[in-house]
Specification:
By secondary structure, the chain is an alpha+beta fold. It has a 7-stranded antiparallel beta sheet with strand order 1-2-13-12-14-10-11, with helices on one face. Strands 3-17-4-15-16 form a 5-stranded antiparallel beta sheet, covered by helices on one side. About 25% of the residues lie in helices and about 20% in strands. The protein folds into 2 domains: about 25-100; about 105-365, no CATH class.
């Protein structure tokens, strides 16, 4: 009997190794996800706390700079509303309004005398110009790094202004924008920076439609938006001299403007700072363009929203432009759009998490021997 009973007993069940392993992996993934979620939550709380301190702390300057900086972005304009009452945001916004109400003197083109002297030959070699710059490789372009308090950037000096045009593709307006690199390719150019503003619903960076007047090859587009829109119009006439100011459509025709866009504010007018009281200095990535008294064009980008470079204010741009000899200069679209392309690639990185933006306009540097006047 005992043998039969023993024979009838079942062997103990063996554990399912596959299920055990799968369960261990699942628990490991769950723990990892929990750690990631906790980290994200803690980082979010820390970020919120920092912004709360900035907007509600004792420093009025920090509060104003924070709000004005975000107001210049297309995607994060709403963020100050999380921390500040509408009345405070309205008060700070008045600073921005005053900037747009600046009045500028008419551009005195006699202050620019285009240098047509031949370049130094092999015997003389490259020479230092009155601003201390040297075109080492003789290609008519000089690239320099600029630095300021808490930021750095790049200045491209184009010695022959006839090589600079406002690049756009009017047939593509309202359908698609171009990256700065694509503008270089389209115009078979050697360098370019972004230029004017554009309609950007939702802050997605689809720069297909200019939001203000554009002049390309003497033809005027989008002038229905008003007198230059924003704070300023900047453009080049048939003699390759730069004009800055609140130009109307009639002004553009009368002054023979061939290429130009709107943005602003103007930085330097007729050799003097455009705002004699000094601009506010909220930090952001920046793009600007200027012209020296010998006609050379100054194309500036400032790196921003990075640990090593938070960005520059308008007063910083004024100081840089004057230091490089600008007679006239104007701020262009900045922030996530600020890019300089030269010598086969981008000189700076885009300050945007989704990558390089498409824009409707740029200032383009044509190849040596090619000019805006053909």
């Amino acid at each position: 009997m005992s043998k039969n009973r023993q024979a009838g007993k079942r062997a103990p069940a063996r554990p399912n190794k596959k299920k055990s392993a799968a369960g261990a992996v699942g628990r490991g993934i769950a723990r990892l996800l929990l750690i990631v979620l906790e980290t994200v939550l803690l980082a979010g709380l820390a970020f919120y706390a920092v912004l709360y301190i900035v907007t509600n702390g004792p420093s009025i300057t920090a509060r104003e700079q924070f709000t004005l900086s975000l107001h210049e972005t297309s995607a994060l304009k709403w963020l100050p509303g999380w921390f500040l009452p509408e009345e405070e945001i309205a008060r700070i916004s008045e600073i921005e309004t005053k900037r747009s109400e600046l009045e500028y003197a008419e551009t005195d083109t006699s202050l620019v005398v285009i240098n047509t002297a031949p370049k130094g030959g092999a015997a003389t070699g490259p020479a230092e110009d009155p601003w201390g710059l040297v075109d080492d490789d003789g290609d008519g372009i000089i690239l320099e790094q600029v630095r300021g308090e808490g930021f750095y950037g790049y200045m491209l000096v184009v010695l022959d202004p006839s090589r600079v045009i406002m690049g756009s593709v009017p047939s593509s307006f309202e359908r698609r924008g171009y990256t700065v690199a694509e503008f270089v390719e389209h115009f078979d150019a050697v360098a370019a920076i972004n230029a004017g503003g554009f309609l950007d619903a939702g802050g997605r960076g689809n720069g297909a439609t200019p939001d203000s007047m554009v002049v390309f090859d003497g033809k005027i587009y989008y002038s229905q938006f008003g007198l230059g829109v924003y704070n300023c119009f900047v453009g080049f006439d048939g003699e390759c001299k730069m004009h800055v100011g609140k130009l109307s459509r009639d002004d553009v025709v009368q002054k023979d403007i061939r290429y130009g866009v709107c943005f602003g504010p103007a930085l330097v007018v007729n050799g003097e700072p455009a705002d004699p009281n000094g601009f506010d200095n909220n930090q952001n990535p920046r793009t600007a363009i200027g012209q020296r008294s010998d006609g050379a064009v100054l194309m500036l980008v400032i790196v921003g929203r990075q640990a090593t470079s938070t960005g520059a204010g308008f007063q910083d741009l004024v100081d840089i432009m004057l230091n490089y000899g600008a007679v006239n200069a104007c701020n262009l679209d900045g922030g996530s759009s600020s890019l300089l392309w030269y010598d086969g690639g981008y000189v700076n990185n885009a300050a945007h998490i989704v990558g390089i933006r498409e824009v409707p306009t740029s200032f383009v540097v044509l190849k040596e021997g090619v000019s805006a006047n053909g």
